[in-house]
């Protein structure tokens, strides 16, 4: 069973900083610090074992907690760290230091001590009674949190920080909190103080009546001390009245002095730009038609109009997701409310029943407002697109068809209930491009299947409820014909998310690395019968274009922003620039490229079918390449025509510019693969080879 604690991570480089929360918190409480310190170094916040999504320990004691922290660091590949512990987290930090002193570059001990209270058993029993009895009138710790935490926060706590503390506390089970309270009273490492040789910074809130600066005297005067004015026990959430100062000491973590004023949130900001101009400009699908001249259907128009109802706020949230490289969770809450998590689930099974063409139109409109949401939405919907009507049309045995129907009812039900599915195919090799079998293996057992392997660039990692994983049946001489398509629960023992995510663009996809270690799943985890995926992939090549709508929408968004900017229709832009010939020529060139891309997009997405002709397959490659490359060219031209001001992060264009460059790199149909296959297919007839 996997016992490694869960964690949040942000940033890269430097000696990593690891944050250990206090008694009534989880890793989420450190979000502002992750955002701030992640700018200059890798910063990790753990969720203590038994809290939130972290597995509980068989025995909750100080050595076991230190070992759990060491296991997490080993999983992350971190040999040496700066370690910050708050309250009981500071006690875990001390325990870890005494077990692994060579792994700690420096210690930051916040609102903690070397020994808790008294060793008198009667005192300990009385303390526990005072702390735990009030919990009896609440059904959960989440209900108790507002009252329990009020006394720790101090008078200057900001409202966003108070809400963050309560959200973090809501993930804790009451029984687990009591277990940690019982452990708390047993801590006593006063005799070990002289053994701490690492540079140590001691933090205390001025108004903390439980762990004051004077209480830190027991740690010895050889370390640096810092009192944060105007804050209580939770200094990280307070608003200091003035910058903190360090008392003299032997050593401290470089850069620790400004820590206190930098603890305030960079996460909670109002939208960077008023995006209301999009309400007028959002006509990326409305102004276009099918290749054969047929207009959009009533159903397609209704779905697109539904996206428009939410789109402007998605565009405004997009700034935050990009800045923080964070998942668009709020947008997925909206998609659930809209019923769109079941967009491609057949109507007879409770979904909206969107076909391939309709999906591409809806996805392009979502991308018009937020490319990251559309990119990840593709991953979710692909799981239902792959497993619905196109599989029904294939040759299956009666047994396979019956099992598939039963399995997909389960997974479609999950989607309709709001569960998010991802589709991590990439393995850092040729498997995702169809060159050889997938390295992730599935071994059949009496209880189902056991998976082992790794997926890189796994979008939605840490945020999906299920990972739709391609893997290979672990049989002798396995080939692509032995491919399995499995839905792996994100909370299954043995599933872990590792690595950082700080890319150029599409930052909100959170595409980290997934590790599967002896992950047991039942037979019902199969999204397709064994071996069917490869057959479907060869017969429905257009399925590898489900990312194309994202970049079609991004291209339209960049063009519309440029027009609105030059017309002075964007909030904060009061100067019109439309009268200059150079601007007019550039917009005309962008429009031509945009319409070329739309025309090919509409024709090709209308040609989706089983076993398309050679010409239709070639057009699919051409469409994928054209949209991905034209998207980058259009956004680049938009940057040039709008000028320097539009490159500021207060506008969306610089984000669209970065996002656009990512499309050509995405497997299985990268721009290079499309050109390679298209060129070969145009010069060679089916089965034709050069004489050797």
End-to-end span in angstroms? Answer: 55 Å
Number of strands: 15
Give the low-pLDDT segments: 212-222, 232-271
Neighbour order of strands in the largest sheet: 1-3-2-4-5-6-7-8
CATH uppermost class of the domain at 7-263:
Alpha Beta
CATH architecture of the domain at 7-263: 3-Layer(aba) Sandwich
- Helical content stands at 40-55%
Portion in beta strands:
5-15%
Instruction: Look at the structure and name the CATH superfamily of the domain at 7-263.
Output: Alpha/Beta hydrolase fold, catalytic domain
Number of helical segments?
20
Largest sheet: 8 strands, mixed
How would you explain this protein's 3D organization?
It is built from 20 helices and 15 strands. The chain is α/β, with parallel strands linked by helices and about 700 residues long. Among the domains are: about 5-265, 3-Layer(aba) Sandwich (Rossmann fold); about 420-530, Butyryl-CoA Dehydrogenase, subunit A, domain 2. The strands form two sheets. Strands 1-3-2-4-5-6-7-8 form an eight-stranded mixed β-sheet, with helices on both faces. Strands 9, 10, 11, 12, 13, 14 and 15 form a seven-stranded mixed β-sheet that branches. Helix 11 (about 355-370) packs antiparallel against helix 12 (about 370-385), helix 11 runs parallel beside helix 16 (about 550-565) and helix 12 runs antiparallel to helix 16 (about 550-565). The radius of gyration is 28 Å and the shape is globular. Mean pLDDT is about 85; it is low at about 210-220 and about 230-270.
């Amino acid at each position: 069973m996997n016992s490694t604690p869960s964690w949040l991570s942000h940033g890269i480089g430097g000696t990593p900083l690891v944050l250990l929360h206090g008694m009534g918190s989880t890793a989420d409480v450190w979000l502002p610090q992750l955002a701030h310190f992640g700018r200059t170094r890798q910063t990790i916040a753990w969720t203590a074992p038994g809290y939130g999504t972290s597995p509980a320990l068989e025995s909750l004691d100080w050595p076991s907690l230190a070992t759990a922290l060491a296991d997490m660091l080993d999983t992350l590949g971190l040999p040496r760290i700066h370690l910050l512990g708050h309250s009981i987290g500071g006690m875990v930090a001390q325990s870890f230091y005494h077990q692994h002193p060579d792994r700690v570059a420096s210690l930051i001990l916040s609102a903690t001590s070397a020994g808790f209270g008294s060793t008198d058993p009667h005192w300990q029993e009385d303390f526990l009674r005072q702390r735990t009895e009030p919990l009896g009138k609440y059904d959960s710790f989440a209900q108790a949190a507002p009252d329990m935490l009020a006394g720790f926060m101090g008078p200057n706590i900001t409202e966003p920080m108070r809400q963050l503390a309560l959200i973090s506390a809501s993930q804790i089970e009451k029984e687990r909190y009591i277990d940690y309270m019982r452990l708390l009273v047993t801590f006593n490492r006063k005799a070990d103080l002289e053994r701490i040789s690492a540079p140590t910074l001691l933090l205390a809130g001025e108004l903390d009546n439980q762990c004051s600066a004077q209480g830190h005297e027991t740690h010895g005067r050889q370390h640096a001390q810092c009192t944060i004015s105007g804050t209580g026990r939770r200094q990280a959430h307070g608003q200091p009245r003035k910058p903190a100062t360090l008392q003299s000491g032997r050593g401290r973590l470089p850069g620790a002095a400004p820590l206190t004023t930098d603890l305030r949130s960079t996460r909670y900001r109002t939208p960077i730009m008023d995006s209301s101009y999009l309400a007028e400009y959002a006509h990326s699908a409305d102004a276009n038609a099918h290749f054969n001249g047929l207009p959009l259907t009533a159903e397609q128009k209704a779905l697109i109009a539904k996206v428009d109802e939410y789109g402007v706020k998605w565009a405004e949230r997009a700034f935050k997701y990009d800045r923080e490289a964070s998942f668009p969770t709020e947008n997925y809450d909206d998609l659930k409310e809209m019923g769109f998590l079941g967009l491609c689930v057949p109507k007879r099974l409770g979904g909206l029943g969107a076909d391939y063409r309709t999906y591409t139109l809806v996805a392009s409109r979502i991308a018009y407002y937020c490319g990251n949401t559309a990119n990840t939405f593709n991953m979710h919907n692909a799981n239902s697109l792959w497993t619905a009507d196109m599989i029904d049309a294939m040759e299956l045995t009666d047994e396979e068809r019956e099992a598939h129907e039963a399995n997909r009812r389960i997974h479609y039900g999950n989607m309709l209930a709001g569960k998010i599915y991802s589709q991590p195919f990439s393995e850092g090799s040729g498997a995702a491009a169809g060159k050889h079998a997938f390295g992730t293996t599935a071994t059949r057992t009496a209880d189902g299947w056991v998976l082992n392997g790794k997926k890189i660039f796994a979008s939605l990692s840490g945020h999906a409820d299920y990972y739709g994983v391609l893997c290979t049946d672990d049989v002798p001489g396995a080939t692509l014909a032995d491919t399995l398509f499995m839905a792996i629960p994100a909370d299954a023992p043995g599933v872990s998310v590792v690595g950082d995510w700080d890319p150029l663009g599409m930052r909100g996809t959170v595409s980290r690395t997934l590790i599967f270690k002896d992950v047991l799943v039942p037979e019902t985890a199969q999204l397709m019968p064994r071996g069917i995926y490869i057959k479907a992939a060869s017969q429905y090549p257009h399925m590898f274009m489900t990312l194309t709508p994202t970049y079609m929408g991004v291209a339209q968004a960049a063009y519309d922003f440029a027009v609105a900017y030059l017309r002075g229709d964007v909030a904060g832009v009061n100067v019109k620039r439309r009268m200059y010939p150079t601007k007019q020529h550039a917009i005309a060139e962008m429009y031509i490229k945009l319409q070329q891309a739309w025309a090919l997009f509409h024709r090709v997405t209308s040609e989706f079918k089983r076993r398309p002709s050679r010409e239709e397959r070639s057009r699919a490659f051409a469409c994928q390449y054209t949209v991905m490359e034209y998207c980058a060219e259009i956004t680049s031209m938009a940057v040039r025509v709008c000028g320097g001001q539009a490159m500021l992060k207060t506008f969306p264009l610089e984000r669209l510019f970065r996002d656009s460059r990512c499309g050509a790199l995405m497997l299985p149909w990268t721009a290079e693969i499309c050109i390679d296959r298209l060129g070969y297919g145009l010069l060679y007839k089916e089965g034709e080879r050069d004489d050797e």
